[in-house]
Write a structure and sequence with these properties.
alpha/beta, TIM Barrel, eight-stranded parallel barrel, 45% helix, globular
Amino acid sequence: MQAVSSLSPADPAETKAETTQGETRVSETVSLAEKLKSGSPVVTGWSMLAVPILAELMGRGGYEAVTVDFQHGAHDIASAREALAAMVLAGTYRLARIPVGDNATASRLLDLGAQAVIAPMINSVEEAKAFAAATKYPPLGERSWGPHRAAMLDGLPLEAYLEKANRETVSLAMIETPQAVAALDAILAVPGIDGVFVGPSDLSLTLSAGADMDRDGEKTTQAIRTIADHARAAGKIAGIFCMSPEKVMEARDAGYTLMAYGADMGLFHAAASTARKACTV
């Protein structure tokens, strides 16, 4: 396969594969929804900084997906718009996480080209229904029509985008509290909710009532396993944050198909530190 130029877009007809320059790209012939629901693993990088080219570089560096973080990251609508477009150049699946309860931003990010939206702190069926309504068109939801940029990025006429939107848009509810775990099956059963995504930090914090943040504690570990088991039983997607490559493998073995590992801030800092330490002057 011909190497991807640093200036040229990836060919969406190609499958994700290593090139002669070590860059990779992902096939748009298989949607993110199809890939995740088939059980194939996807590792997503995490875009915290409002620097769109970093999202593209994460894709070119090997990540098959990148998530733009609106909850704890520095992104605004302008940087997210450019980051989502930059991901297309890298042939990377495009995800975004919204702030807590901000379903209007979920709709807007989908209009700008996100293929999946992650909603934090979904603790009830009512919250799950409101989120699903904002991300799916009628009759499944109440998403307002206006995906002009999204259709452009996909290279589709608007009619073709509408035909696939509800089927290929991935809506993931974050499970981060005891209340959410208790309502897990009901949340998974909400029409338009395609799966769940675990935030181990908040989950451990809330399970301990704020006493500690032990992502590897017994309660947290058991909850993480339970969430994956119930998602699989419901035929839904299970995703999770991972703090190390070993945790990515553990999550995959537990039944998760979407694993987040590696944020741009940490990756850049580690690369800068390694580069400077290599200079012994």
